Amino acid sequence: MEKVLEIKNLHVSFDTYGGTVKAVRGVGFDLHKGETIAIVGESGCGKSVTSQSIMRLIPKATGRIADGSILFKGNDLTKLKESEMRKIRGSEISMIFQDPMTALNPTITVGEQITEGIMQHTKATKQQAKQKAVEMLELVGISSPKERLKQYPHQFSGGMRQRIVIAMSLVCEPEVIIADEPTTALDVTIQAQILELFRDIQRKTNVSIILITHDLGVVAQVTDRVVVMYAGKVVEAGTRREIFYNPQHPYTKGLLNSVPRLDLQGGDLIPIPGSPPDLFSPPTGCAFAPRCPYAMEVCDRVHPNDTIISEGHHTSCWLQDERAKKLVSTLA
Ligand code: SF4
Ligand code: MG
C-alpha cells in the first residue's frame, strides 16, 4: 500500500517555567492510502502533540520539533516554510477537533462558512462553491442541505455540527484527515453514527485518517491499525486484530482491561493504577515500570528496544526482548 505519511524519530519539546517537557520522544509510524490508524493513550501521552506536529501547529513561543522528520508526498513537513505549510494545511491535510464549536463561527451561516473555505483553497466561483457545499452536506448525511446552509451553527445539534465540521474538512479533498477525539463530546448513539460516517467517507474518497483517541471502543469500531503511546513514546503498534486479540505490552493489556467490551461479557473492569511519569526528566528505563505488574530490575535501568512480534506488529517491552536475559545476568 502506498505510504501517505511517514513519521520518523519525532521529538517535540515545550519550555515551561518548570523546565523543558519532552512531550514526544522518538515517535515513528506510517500512514497508508485509504487506511485509518488510531493513536491511543491516556491524556498527556503525546498523541495530540504528535498530530499537531504533523499540522505544524505546535505553538512557536514555547514548543518545537526538536528532531525527526514527517514525510508527506516526498516533502519533510518539519522543514517547510510557514507559507508552504499553509497551502498544505486544510487543503491536503485537514484536522477535526473534539468540540465542533471551536471550528465554527457562531455568527455566520453554515453555508457561508463552507463556501468561504472552498473559495479560499480553490479557484471556485461563489456559485460553484455553493453547489459544492450542498454536495458536501449531502456526503455527511445532512438532509435538505439547501435550506440548512442558510442556518447558523446553534440551529444544529452537537452531532450535526460535527458533521458540518467534517464536511468542511473534506471540501478540498484532502489526502489526510486528522481527527482529535472527534466523538468525545457526543453521546454514544451519535458517536457511533459519526464513526460510521468516517467509514463511509473513506469508502467514497479513499482518504487516510488518523484518529486520536483515549477510547478503545472508538478504535474497535473504525480503525485498521493502532499505535499505542505512553509517556511520549510508541510502546506497541499493530493491526486492530493484533492489538485487541494479541496485545503484548503490559500497558496495552491494561488499557484493554480498563474499557468495557461488548464482545467480552463479564469480568470486572480494572483501571491501571498509578499515573504516567512527569516528562521534565523522563526515566532512563521503561517509563511504564512504576505501574507495571511485570517490571523487572532491568526495566528501570535500560530502555527496552522495539521488538517485532509479527509483520506490522511491534512492541518495546523487556518481556519480548531476548537481550533481557543477558542484561539481567550482567546487572545481577
Ligand atoms: Fe513492564 Fe518492563 Fe515491559 Fe516496561 S519493559 S512494560 S516495566 S515488563
Ligand atoms: Mg489531547
Automatic annotation (TrEMBL):
Record keywords: ATP-binding, Cell membrane, Membrane, Nucleotide-binding, Transport
SMART domains the UniProt entry points to: AAA (SM00382)
Coiled coil start-end: none
Biological processes per GO annotation: peptide transport
Membrane-topology descriptor: Peripheral membrane protein
CC per GO annotation: plasma membrane
Principal location listed in the UniProt entry: membrane
Any one Gene Ontology molecular-function term assigned to this protein's record: ATP hydrolysis activity
ABC transporter domain mapped to chain residues: 5-256
Subcellular location as annotated: Cell membrane
Pfam families noted in UniProt: ABC_tran, oligo_HPY
Cross-referenced PANTHER family: DIPEPTIDE TRANSPORT ATP-BINDING PROTEIN DPPD (PTHR43297:SF2), OLIGOPEPTIDE TRANSPORT ATP-BINDING PROTEIN APPD (PTHR43297)
Family recorded in the similarity comment: Belongs to the ABC transporter superfamily.
Database matches in NCBIfam families: oligo_HPY
Name under which the protein is recorded: Peptide ABC transporter ATP-binding protein
Source organism: Priestia koreensis
